[in-house]
């Protein structure tokens, strides 16, 4: 009788709390299994041959590429790092990819063969070739000689995001394994913790500001999910990543008993949190991508800043209300996937971003992406739970309809798409892993601690 009563009460509590969950139990289960399956299809096992002209995985361990089938045949640091909080990678896989990334960190500043770009000491690869472990620091090529060439659209400095994702990789590994000794392990004569600190200092700043900064003369990609967009000035998304990396580096230095350095990096995070909203917020409460070129209201940055509690109080509510209004007006999402810029806030009729290589409404210049759906749904839930639930439902419904596991004629999760028929990148990992991370966390939080009314 007592067991029956307890079960009944738990069900009643679950029914009440379900009103405060962004996603249903069934949809979360579906998304979890799809994420697992996409991740499994993205693994490159030792000795596994990739499609020609790419070779065999000779790195000595499992690598995880950005997706399944023929999607991006190399190891991309950021895509892997953005999926780590799913908890679906084992200890050995994490250790191998962390040490491979450390081994390929640039140990000597060099000018690229195209003599027009630089690879600074401490830079982390954009991606690493599987057959020979050659690091490629610039997007857009698999050829070491071609990176940073004069006609490259990707700037003259490696992307500013990968250094911070390297730190996230180390933090996630230590958190999962409690293996703090790895932080003192020497890689090519330099300890891992020193390599993490060196990586942190690679992205440039301006004067005494803690924000990541670039100019046209030294332009680099602010975040790899918009490497076809030219953005200058203080950089919002890269600075968000720097904020998290500073907290993580502080935690890691604490584990190695470096209390002074732990305090320094915690203070850097505090500085970023203090200045970031005032630097980038527009009159609608949205965070702009930058203070220079392509200074436009950035959905991804705004939603992530809410999710990481960088936007708080009235500033957070204002931003979330704008996102909710855009969602209700069908200007934010399509089938649960999210644009970088709200429809109607494009730079002009010809392009979403001020300066973009991709045509309007394709790829990063106006197509819809699943990667930020969780962040956006979370932000909208702060002001309108019903809208957030609808967004999550639309996202999962489209995955169910176009699920690649149905056969060769099905391809979801896509990297991005837009109506009526544009698609890119079948079986793309972060499209499901990033929303799953958010939805799982918010679902568990709603069970443990119901939202305050």
Strands, helices and their partners?
Blueprint: H1 2-17, H2 25-42, E1 43-44, E2 63-64, E3 75-76, H3 77-83, H4 91-103, E4 110-111, E5 118-119, E6 127-128, E7 135-136, H5 162-177, E8 186-187, E9 190-191, H6 192-200, E10 213-214, E11 233-234, H7 236-255, H8 259-280, H9 299-307, H10 313-328, E12 333-334, E13 337-338, E14 368-369, H11 373-381, H12 385-401, E15 416-418, E16 422-424, H13 429-448
Antiparallel strand pairs: 1-2, 3-6, 4-5, 6-7, 8-9, 10-11, 12-13, 14-15, 15-16
Helix pairs in contact: 2-13, 3-5, 3-13, 4-5, 5-6, 5-7, 6-7, 7-8, 9-10, 9-11, 10-11, 11-12, 11-13
Taking the sheet with the most strands, its summary is: 3 strands, antiparallel
What strand line-up does the widest sheet have? 3-6-7
Low-confidence regions: 6-17, 448-453
Radius of gyration: 21 Å
Structure write-up:
The chain is mainly alpha-helical. The protein is 42% helix and 8% strand. It has helices at residues 2-17, 25-42, 77-83, 91-103, 162-177, 192-200, 236-255, 259-280, 299-307, 313-328, 373-381, 385-401, 429-448, and strands at residues 43-44, 63-64, 75-76, 110-111, 118-119, 127-128, 135-136, 186-187, 190-191, 213-214, 233-234, 333-334, 337-338, 368-369, 416-418, 422-424. α10 crosses α11 (373-381) and α11 (373-381) packs parallel to α13. It is globular and about 55 Å long.
Summarize the structure.
The protein has 453 residues and is mainly alpha-helical. The protein has helices spanning 2-17, 25-42, 77-83, 91-103, 162-177, 192-200, 236-255, 259-280, 299-307, 313-328, 373-381, 385-401, 429-448; strands at residues 43-44, 63-64, 75-76, 110-111, 118-119, 127-128, 135-136, 186-187, 190-191, 213-214, 233-234, 333-334, 337-338, 368-369, 416-418, 422-424. The longest helix has 22 residues, at 259-280.
């Amino acid at each position: 009788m007592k067991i029956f009563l307890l079960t009944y009460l738990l069900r009643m509590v679950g029914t009440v709390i379900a009103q405060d969950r962004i996603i249903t139990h069934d949809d979360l289960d579906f998304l979890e299994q799809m994420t697992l399956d996409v991740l499994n299809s993205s693994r490159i096992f030792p000795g596994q041959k990739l499609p020609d002209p790419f070779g065999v995985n000779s790195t000595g361990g499992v690598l995880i590429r950005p997706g399944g089938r023929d999607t991006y045949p190399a190891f991309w640091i950021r895509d892997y790092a953005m999926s780590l909080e799913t908890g679906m990678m084992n200890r050995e896989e994490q250790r191998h990819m962390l040490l491979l990334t450390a081994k390929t960190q640039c140990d000597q500043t060099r000018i690229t063969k195209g003599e027009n770009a630089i690879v600074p000491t401490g830079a982390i690869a954009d991606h690493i070739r599987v057959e020979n472990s050659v690091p490629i620091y610039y997007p857009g090529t698999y050829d070491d000689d071609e990176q940073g060439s004069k006609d490259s659209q990707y700037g003259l400095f490696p992307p500013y995001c990968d250094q911070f994702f390297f730190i996230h990789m180390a933090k996630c590994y230590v958190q999962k394994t409690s293996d703090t000794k790895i932080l003192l392990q020497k890689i090519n004569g330099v300890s891992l913790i020193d390599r993490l600190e060196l990586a942190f200092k690679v992205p440039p700043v301006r004067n005494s500001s803690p924000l990541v900064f670039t100019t046209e003369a030294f332009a680099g990609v602010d975040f790899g999910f918009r490497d076809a967009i030219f953005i200058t000035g203080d950089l919002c998304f890269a600075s968000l990543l720097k904020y998290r990396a500073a907290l993580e580096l502080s935690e890691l230095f604490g584990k190695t008993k470096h209390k002074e350095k732990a305090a320094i990096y915690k203070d850097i995070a505090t500085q970023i949190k203090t200045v970031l909203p005032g630097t980038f917020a527009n009159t609608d409460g949205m965070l702009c991508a930058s203070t220079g070129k392509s200074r436009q209201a950035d959905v991804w940055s705004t939603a992530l800043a809410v999710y990481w509690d960088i936007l708080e109080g009235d500033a957070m509510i204002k931003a979330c209300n704008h996102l909710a209004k855009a969602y209700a007006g069908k200007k934010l999402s399509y089938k649960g996937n999210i644009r970088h810029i709200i429809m109607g806030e494009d730079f002009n009729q010809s392009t979403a971003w001020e300066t973009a290589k991709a045509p309007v409404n394709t790829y990063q210049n106006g197509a819809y992406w699943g990667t930020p759906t969780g962040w956006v749904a979370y932000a909208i839930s702060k002001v309108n739970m019903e809208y957030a639930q609808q967004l999550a439902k639309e996202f999962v419904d489209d995955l169910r309809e176009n699920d690649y596991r149905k056969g060769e004629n099905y391809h979801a999760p896509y990297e991005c798409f837009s109506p009526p028929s544009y698609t890119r990148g079948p079986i793309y990992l972060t499209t499901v892993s990033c929303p799953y991370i958010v939805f799982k966390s918010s679902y568990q939080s709603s069970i443990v601690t119901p939202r305050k009314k």
